[in-house]
Amino acid sequence: MATAVPVERDAVARAFTGEGHLVIAAGVGPALAAASTATALTTAALSGTPYHLVVSAGIAGGFQPEAPLGSLVVADEITAADLGAETPEGFVPVTELGFGTVTHRPPDALVRDLAAATGARTGTVLTVSTVTGTAERAAALRARHPRALAEAMEGFGVAEAAAAHGVPVLEIRAVSNPVGPRDRAAWRIGDALAALTEAFGKLAPVLESWNQHDQ
Ligand SMILES: O=C(O)c1cccc(C(=O)CC[C@H]2O[C@@H](n3cnc4c(=O)[nH]cnc43)[C@H](O)[C@@H]2O)c1
Hints:
Blueprint: E1 2-3, H1 6-15, E2 24-25, H2 30-46, E3 54-62, E4 72-80, E5 84-87, E6 90-93, H3 94-97, E7 103-104, H4 108-118, E8 121-127, H5 135-144, E9 148-152, H6 155-164, E10 169-178, H7 189-213
Parallel strand pairs: 1-2, 3-10, 4-8, 8-9
Antiparallel strand pairs: 3-9, 4-7, 4-10, 5-6
Helix pairs in contact: 1-7, 2-6, 4-7
Keywords: Hydrolase, Menaquinone biosynthesis
Function: Catalyzes the hydrolysis of futalosine (FL) to dehypoxanthine futalosine (DHFL) and hypoxanthine, a step in the biosynthesis of menaquinone (MK, vitamin K2).
Pathway: Quinol/quinone metabolism; menaquinone biosynthesis
């Protein structure tokens, strides 16, 4: 499990206490999250106990009204929203420039099972390097990604590391703030961390049984 910061790591670890997994604070942003996750995966593989699933987890901004504060989102697509080029005609993702990738897809069945266990919504979770701070940017992201429910800063980096190791990936986010105009008074980080702990309590049996049977 790769969270960004220690409070997220602790929120997950409080609920997820079995053996055979690791919960790390991998750092904020896609680059550090990728480096930390790849290091953890390599270390485990070299010691003969490779991981079979990687989960990016933490708090996120939720697109309104679909992902209200305190709600949970399980990504069926993890998409890098700002990996590309700005052109006079608008943003062009790197894939349309002829290289790279911008989306990773978690296993369908696992996404369905996790959503059923927690009541989470499923949809695209965007990875951004800059937190959205205006209504215009939020609207532009939704126009480009109509299925987006949330934005955060690590999922795509974690997914790239998992893909490099041939390991499936999930992203699970609890909504701490709306995506849109910057309003620190509207953040509900405590509620989102509590929602994360509650969700991981319900997810633990699903993830553990998937780890044992579906590799
Ligand atoms: O200063 C701000 O306006 C601001 C607004 C929201 C979040 C931040 C952060 O620095 C938190 C980044 C951290 O938390 C995740 N996160 C939470 N909400 C969002 C969001 O709306 N957009 C992107 N990331 C968010 C993120 O994954 C980081 O780990 C600052």
